[in-house]
Amino acid sequence: MHSSSQLRILFVCLGNICRSPAAEIVCRTALKRAELAGRVLVDSCGTASYHVGSKPDSRMLAALNRAGFGYDGHRARQLKQSDGMHFDLVIPQDAENLRDVQRVLHGSTAKVLPMSRWFPTGCTLQEVPDPYYGEEADFDAVVRLLADSMPQLVEELRAGISV
Questions:
Q1: Is 140 among the catalytic positions?
Q2: Within 10 Å of residue 156's Cβ, how many Cβ atoms?
Q3: Given 19, 94, 100, 140, which residue is catalytic?
């Protein structure tokens, strides 16, 4: 755990405008509901610099809104090596970003675990699919998958996940 009493979690995808900010927003809401918000800091970033400074994709914001999650002012940023020292747990959304995170954070103290670790029982997906080139339903499916996965993550945090 980080030197402070707060656990620090970083969600990661490619551009930080779809999956990882959605995971950040959904996780923050789940933590509030579980009364763990003050004990866990949540952030997100991307492995690529394509969208640095941008708001999340409007289609993802619409999907989050339809599912009852609000926009929190997030702006895209790129993963940097120092994130490996600042965060306790880094959660890439897919296999490609998992490899990129491991490369960038090589030698850091952060534990890197794929989002799929917390997928609900029976889920056949191996990663959070990228909805960027998809349709509205693809964005809704990602939000649903993340919302269905967060209780599992929050329970591990509550139980004192070893990071």
A1: no
A2: 16
A3: 19
Active site residue 19: yes
Phi, psi dihedrals of residue 13, rounded to the nearest 5°: -135, -165
This model's pTM is above 0.85: yes
End-to-end CA, the chain:
6
The count of structural domains within the chain is 1
Tell me, yes or no, whether 163 lies in a domain: no
- Average confidence (pLDDT) per 10 residues, the chain, 163 residues: 74 98 98 94 97 97 97 95 97 98 96 98 97 98 98 93 46
Q: Check which CATH number belongs to the domain holding 47 and give it.
A: 3.40.50.2300
Q: What is the pLDDT of residue 139?
A: 98
Q: Please check whether residue 2 lies inside any domain of the structure.
A: no
Which residues are CB-contacts of 119 (< 8 A; sequence separation ≥ 6)?
Answer: 125, 145, 148, 149, 152
1 within a domain of the structure (yes/no): no
Q: Report pLDDT for 72.
A: 84
**Domain annotation covers residue 26:** yes
Catalytic site includes residue 13: yes
Catalytic residue (choose from 8, 13, 94, 140): 13
91: domain range? 7-158
Per the CB < 8 A criterion, the answer to whether 30 and 42 are in contact is no
The single residue of 57, 94, 130, 140 carrying the catalytic annotation is 130
